[in-house]
Amino acid sequence: MKKLYITTPIYYVNAKPHIGHAYTTVACDVFARFNRMLGMDVKFTTGTDEHGKKVEQSAIKAGNTPQGFTDSISKLFRDLLPVLNISNDDFIRTTESRHKKTVQHFWEKLKNAGYIYLGEYSGWYDMRNEAYFAEDELVDGKSPLGGEVQYITEPCYFFKLSAFQNKLLDFYEKNPDFVYPTQRRNEMLSFIKQGLRDLAVSRTTFSWGIPVPDDPKHVVYVWLDALTNYLTLNGYPENEDQNNDEYWNNVIHFVGKEIVKFHAIYWVAFLMAVGIKPPKQVVSHGWWLSEGEKMSKSLGNVQDPYKYCKIFGSDALRYYLMREITFGSDGNFSLDSFIHRYNSVLANSYGNLCSRVLAFIVKYCNGNVYRPTVTSAEDEEFINSVNNCIGAIVPLVQNYNFSKYLEKIEQAITLANQYMDAKKPWTLKLDNSNRMQDVLFILTATIYKITKYLYPVIPQATTLLMNQLHMSCDMQLSDAEALPETIHIDSVTPLFPKIDAKNIKRQDVCAKD
Ligand code: MSP
Questions:
Q1: How far is the CA of 14 from the centre of ligand 1 (A)?
Q2: Most distant CA atoms of the chain, gap in Å
Q3: How far lies 231's CA from each of 52, 213, 226, 479, in Å?
Q4: Which of 20, 165, 224, 284 is 20 to 30 Å from 265 by CA-CA measure?
C-alpha cells in the first residue's frame, strides 16, 4: 500500500477552537478519508502549539500557570476531534517530552551542520504572531500580520537562512506543484527573490519554551519548535532516516494562507540544512469571515464548532465547510447560508432521496429489491449521466477542489430524484411490479454509489445508510460497483431532519466568551 502522511497545523492554545480551526482539520480529514478509500495507507496527525510568550502571558492573565493553562485549552482542541468525527492517528502537544527530545536533537543537527550562530537581535517584535520584523516591513506602525509591535534587543541564535536562497529557488523550479495554489507559490517565490535574511531562532525574553541545548537561558523560537512537530509525529529522531521513510516521502502539510511562508520557506530551509528532504507539498486554504466580518469576541460572531455539531450534527458542519467556498479562496460563514445548504442539500435532496426510495422498498417490496435482468435505454442514459458526475470526482479531490467534488455529487443526487419522479414507482406498483423492482434496484444502486463518494465528507450519515442497506462500512472505492444480486432493507431512519431557521438564533451558535 502506498503511504501518505497528512498534517494539520498545530493550533495555538491562546484561544478556544472556532470554525477557522475546524476548517483546516476537516479538510485534512476529508482528504485522509478519501485517500484511504482509494487504498492508500494514510497517517493523519494534528495537535497543539503550546509555547511562546503569548501563551505565557495569556496564562498569567487567566491566573494560571502556563502548563495548567495549556492543559485546559489543548483539551478543548483534542475533545473537538471526536465531536467533528475526525479520523486522526495521533495528536501532539509541543509540551510533551517526545517533542522536546526531537526539537533539541534537530537543533543540535542544525548547529553541527554549521547553520546556527550566536548574535544579537534588535527589531520590531509582533508578540501575537511571535515574529520579528524590520522597520521597513511595518505597515502603519504594526507588523505586516496586523499585530502590535515592540522594539526589542536580545542576544539570540540565528539560523543562516540567507544561505538557502538559491537552493530554495532551485527547489521551487524543480517542484512546480510544491505550493498549492499557484497564487501562493508565486508569493513565496517573490519573497525568496527579495532576499532572505538570517532568522532569529532563540529567545531570552521569556522562559516558556524548549531550552536551547547547552545554553538554557535561551528557548527555541516557537516556529522552529512547532514545525518540528511533523518530524516528532514521524518517529524522529529514533526514526532518523526520514529520507527513506515512505510517509515522509509523501507528506502533505495543510495550512491556512497566512502561515504558508513558515512551511514553504523556513521549514524547507531547516530541513535542507539537516539533510532531510522537504515535504512533498504545502497546501493552503483561504480564510473565513463570519457574517461578513472578521471573527472577534467583541463582535460576538466567533462561530463555535461545538455548538454547530450539537445542533446540526458534525456531518452538517463538515459538509458546509467543504461546500461553501472554493478551497484556496476566502469566504463567508453565515448561519442563514448554513441552514439553507443543510435544508436544500442534506435534508431535501440527499436525505429525501434515500428515505423515499428505501421507505418505498420497505413498504411495497417487503424490503427486497433484485438486480434487473434487462435495463432500458433510459435506464442506461440515467446510469451513464450519474457515472459521468461521479467519474469526475477523484481528480477533483486530488486537486483539492472539494466544493466542485460536492457539486458533482449534488448533480448526481438531482438526477436520481428526477429519475424517480419520471419513472413513478408508485404508479408501476399498480400494473408493472417487475419494472417497479428494476427501477428501485437502479435507484438503490445509485444511492449506494453516491453514498460511498459522500462518505469522506459526511461519514456519520453515510455509515448509517450503509447499515440500512446491510452493506459493509469498510469504504473502498474499488467496490463502488459491487452490489449483491439482492438488496435488503429492514427499516429506514431519516438522515437529516429538516430544520426550521426560525428556531435558531445567532447566539445559539456563537461563542459566549
Ligand atoms: N500554531 C500555528 C501553526 C503552527 S504549524 C507548525 C498557527 N496556529 S493557529 O491556531 O493560529 O492557526 C491554525 C490554523 O487555523 C491555520 O491553518 C489557520 O489558517 C486556521 N485558521 C484560523 N482562523 C481561521 C479563519 N478565520 N479561517 C480559516 N482558517 C483560519 O498558526
A1: 12
A2: 89
A3: 20, 18, 10, 35
A4: 20
Residues 6 or more apart whose Cβ sits within 8 Å of residue 323: 341, 345, 402, 403, 406, 407
- Provide the grid cell at 468: 440500512
Task: Please report the DSSP string for 219-263 in residue order.
Answer: EE-HHHHHHTHHHHTTTTTTS--GGG-TTGGGEEEEEEGGGHHII
3-state secondary structure of 486: strand
> Which residues does a 6 A CB cutoff place in the pocket of ligand 1?
9-12, 20-21, 23-24, 49, 226-227, 229, 255-256, 258-259, 287-288, 295
Residue 357 Cα to ligand 1 midpoint, Å, equals 42
Task: Check: CB of residue 159 under 8 Å from CB of residue 224.
Answer: yes
- Strands 149-159, 116-126: pairing is antiparallel
- Delineate the domains of the chain, giving CATH numbers in brackets: 3-285 (3.40.50.620), 335-488 (1.10.730.10)
Instruction: Of 46, 7, 43, give the one whose Cα is nearest residue 247.
Output: 43
Give pLDDT tens digits for 190-219. 999 999 999 999 999 889 999 999 999 999
The per-residue pLDDT of the chain, averaged, comes to 95
